[in-house]
Amino acid sequence: MADTARPDHLPNRRPDRKPPHPSWLPRQRAGITPQMIGRYPDFDVLATADTWDEATRNVVLARLEPPGPLRFFTAAEEPGLRAFCDTVLAQDVEPRVPVAESVDSKLADGRLDGYQYADMPDDRDTFRMVLRGLDETATRDYGKDCFAAAEPETREAIIEDFAHGSLTGATWDNLNVKRAWSVCMRMVLSGFYSHPWAWNEIGFGGPAYPRGFMRLGGATGPAAAREPFETPGATDEDPVRVVQSGEL
Question: Spans of biased composition, class Basic and acidic residues (predicted)?
Answer without folding.
Answer: 1-19
